[in-house]
Amino acid sequence: MLRVTPELLLRAYALGVFPMAESRSDPELYWIDPKQRGILPLDAFHVPHSLRKAIRRRTFDIRVDTAFREVMEACAEPGPGRPDSWINEEILALYTALHEARHAHSVEAWRDGRLVGGLYGVTIGAAFFGESMFSRETDASKVALVHLVARLRCGGFELLDTQFVTKHLARFGVVEIPRQRYQELLQRAISRPADFYCEVPDSAVEALMQSSTQMS
Questions:
Q1: Vertex 177 angle, CA 183 and 79, to 5°
Q2: pTM of the model
Q3: What's the rounded mean pLDDT across residues 173-196?
């Protein structure tokens, strides 16, 4: 059996393939290559009206890469409509190693010193592969997503892969495209430079909400 390493994982992402487990207790990994792929066009991101108010209230302190493994572990916790998780111990270890190599990142929502929401994903070149998100307070993960998009736009990213389309993500503008079209966008994005740690001004988040108002 082929041992999955962080290097192999990055090669898989560059080919459009990603791993999942059947459950948290299942040690096996399965490679997924959907015929239809979910992506969030960065120039067509939509911030729902109700969420704009939460962002402007500055309810959450948004941080980057200060609690990566904790975000993963929170994403793996059972939740409403989700009694189990595809994030097993192997995935936790692999992505933690990618994080240490600066290829995986978390965007975190904190409140009163507590981690209350966030998301994580993988970067190669100008592509960001979103993996999972969680929320312990209303709107926490959604606010983290808005800050992620602002960061990706500032850093010169071209592709935000969401893997699948859900009703929740569709509200933000996620669309489904065929595998062949995804491969074209993927190969272009991974060949270009981008900076996840770019300086993101507050005006970048406000600009996202203003553009959403114009598109509404």
A1: 105
A2: 0.94
A3: 98
Size of the chain, expressed as the number of residues it contains: 216
CB 69 within 8 A of CB 93: no
Q: What is the pLDDT of residues 119-156, one digit of tens each?
A: 999 999 999 999 999 999 999 999 999 999 999 999 99
- Rounded Cα distance, 102 and 152, in Å: 15
The CATH number of 34-80+102-215 is which of 3.90.550.10, 3.40.630.70, 3.20.20.10, 3.30.70.20?
Answer: 3.40.630.70
